[in-house]
Amino acid sequence: MPKIKRDKSYSQHKEVARQGILFNKDFGQHILKNPQVIQSMLDKSALRSTDIALEIGPGTGNMTVRLLEKVKKVIACEIDPRLVAELQKRVLGTPFQSKLQILVGDVLKMELPFFNICVANIPYQISSPLVFKLLLHRPFFRCAVLMFQREFAYRLVAKPGDKLYCRLSLNTQLLAKVELLMKVGKNNFRPPPKVESNVVRIEPRNPPPPINFKEWDGLTRIAFVRKNKTLSAAFKQSTVLALLEKNYTTACSLMNKAIPEGFDIKEKIESILSDCGAAEKRARVMDIDDFIMLLHAFNKEGIHFS
Ligand code: SAH
Question: Would you call 3 helix, strand, or coil by DSSP?
Fold first, then answer.
């Protein structure tokens, strides 16, 4: 039975292509054509029949129809009205019709509704903002199983010292547990993209770590401008010094506090860095705890990044 269904969805998909619904590169349209890849993504998502699933970029609906078989409701967000029409046609008159809600538009500009789980082969060009949109979404969802361009996936999971370790790795891992699930070759898509892909599982940390994210962002941006530089060098940049001095003066005046005599922002920063043993460290080898400790040390001394 499932096999017959699968064949049907397949031929419908071919039909779409034959009708000349041409895939639009600007929207990152690469349809997952291998049903086994779709099946593995769903298996790894551990879907529950009570789940509300969010799918971003359903395209012609190859994954959507499989999701609809497994969960209570699918909310699919699609920017291309032609594909929305195709998807609607595909479920029309089936029991799935009432379980599918389509949101038409750019997912990045939308307020997302409540969902338990997100499963999607997403348009790769929105990977980074989408990950953070999901991670900042409340209430928390259980997990997201998403297809990404391989290098992006490797960045998400990179550890301190890895070649691809960067601010994206640090920020994602601050807010979530991330895990590579499988490699997916480009020929599983139609048209094949130029790059290879990987499926990643992202599980938000609930509760999130108790830190001020604006401060965190300010500190890590400075540290990662040149991730191979020592922190001492990164903090000697004149723009950084000027910004931190300005923040310091503003904070003092807000608290009605006089700036200590002979205050020198450069010396202050040097002493904080060396007290933390961080002056000679480089961002590329620092982990989340290193940055949290450093942030607290700066903030304790009245140095703020936002
Ligand atoms: N998930 C489908 C299609 C993947 S292609 C499949 O695996 O077969 C990516 C899909 O995302 C396309 O349907 C594209 O139109 C849609 N898309 C691109 N940018 C989007 C955005 N900003 N918001 C919502 N959907 C988008």
Answer: helix
